[in-house]
Write a structure and sequence with these properties.
By secondary structure, the protein is of the alpha+beta class. The protein has three helices and eleven strands; from the N terminus they run αααβββββββββββ.
Amino acid sequence: MKALKWSLLGFLGLSVVGYCLLSPNVSAADGFSKVKCGGDIPAALIGVVLANERSSAVEARHKDLGLKDLGGDELSGGLSLSGWLICGSEYQLITDKRNVVRDVLKFPEHSKASPEFLGSCRINGKPLPGDVIAVLNNQPGAENLSAKFAWKIDTKTAKFVKLDTAGMQCPRDGINTADGGN
């Protein structure tokens, strides 16, 4: 009876390992294995687990994708935001505590004239709750800048929510990219 019990436990253990290796919901190696240039990059990343290792190691494994870690920020609710250059375009990823990619946004180009922003904004003078990621219109000397494109980061659903930018103003101190804007 003990031998049968251990055989069943061994079988179940192997079954779980096999499921993990073969399941489409469990990612291989570092999460970028399913990504193909020219393919649906957000669909390939949503639901995968990103490896907890040095970015340089992941970038080296995926030279074919032109992969580059652009940095990240901690969000409320145990979420993180990370930027990646993939196949020549920038993507923003929301990940949870377990490093599972919850949502992916192909982020528009930005520059000194149109810097990237992360923080709190106002719409028609009223505070917009939560974090906003945006591309702003740089206006030299202005304390607050209007937005070209903006998304709210919904921490309850871990999703990017497109925002109407009419009347939106964001403070200059939320500009978070090397291309600046000051």
